[in-house]
Amino acid sequence: MRFLTSLRARLALAGFTMMYLAVLLVFGVGLLSEEEATSTLVDGVEVTVDSSGGSSGWSRATVAALLPMTAVLAWWWAGRAVRPIDRIRSVAESIDATDLHRRIGLERGPEEVVALAASFDSMIDRLHRTATEQREMLDELSHDLRTPIAVLATNAEVRLARSSAPIEWYRDGFEQSRRSAQRITEVLDRYLVDARAAARTIDRRPIDLVLLVRDAIDHLRPFADAGQVDIELDAPDTLTGAWDSTAVSRAVTNLIHNAVRHSPAKTSVDVCVRAESDHVDISVSDRGPGIPAHRQAAIFERRSRSSEVARTNGLGLSIARHVAAAHGGSISVESPSGSYATSFVLRLPSSSPLS
């Protein structure tokens, strides 16, 4: 009975049963009403006379003729009922890893099937965004690794080409190779943090959040001094909790670096750490060009650009958003219209106090 495993076949059978039962009911009542019999006595014998004539025969023929017609109608109706499902299946079979642009776009049909199609389209949208981010990350990774790898290769070729040279010359070459190898390690660590944050896999460990923020500021101090930008911190002495130190440090560093990069000379970047009852806020404010309201949501996308202002984030703000989401937190931006001030707030859920 493999035929009955088909949804269309089951619907057709159910539809046929209901429709043909209706036919039998209608014509059955007609037949019963037509079969009027009368009884008379002829020579003392009771004789029953049928007054329905031949109409009952025509009714039975009609019922028999409607049998195949009802079956065809039921099969057609079942086909229309499962057509949206066939459309979903067709689109699903046509999608592969290299083409995630097709959508079902079902607007009419049973409410449950339309909802299923909408959920399927939403899933494909998420897969498309993920695949796009992965391709962009690979492109950026290859770009960031190309220079240090080229330095390593060129440095080795130059040193090997000379049979004799002062020892200091070789020391310089080894130092260049060491810096290039360190650069490769930093790039890989940075992208590993981004991948972990995007996958929402974090490693919670006891850390002092204020100390982490201070380290990020100290790391960026030379960059800020070069642009004549001061970095000021407003925070308690300590704030301990369980967070992913590598991921949070990356997010905070990105926010401060972004603020310093867009700050005019002789201005300051304000970093504030505040602990509330159920969350911790790390705010970073600058006095650079503002961000139009209609662009504020897009700046957290990878390689977002605003034509109105020269604020580009590349991976930085996207990573910060992933880190916040991985911790169950959020990130927001405030940039009042017409003002030269922008403030980013990284909100992380509070963890249990740690000794």
Written account of the structure:
The structure is a single chain. The longest helix has 51 residues, at 111-161. A hairpin with a 2-residue loop joins strand 1 and strand 2 (45-50). This protein has helices at residues 7-34, 55-94, 111-161, 167-198, 209-226, 245-261, 316-326, and strands at residues 37-42, 45-50, 205-208, 229-234, 240-243, 267-275, 279-286, 330-334, 342-349. Helix 1 (7-34) packs antiparallel against helix 2 and helix 4 (167-198) crosses helix 7 (316-326). The protein is elongated and about 115 Å long. 55% of the residues lie in helices and 16% in strands. Strands 4-6-7-9-8 form a five-stranded mixed β-sheet, with helices on one face. By secondary structure, the protein is of the alpha+beta class. The protein folds into three domains: 2-36 and 51-94, no CATH class; 113-198, Helix Hairpins (Orthogonal Bundle), CATH 1.10.287; 205-349, Histidine kinase-like ATPase, C-terminal domain (Heat Shock Protein 90).
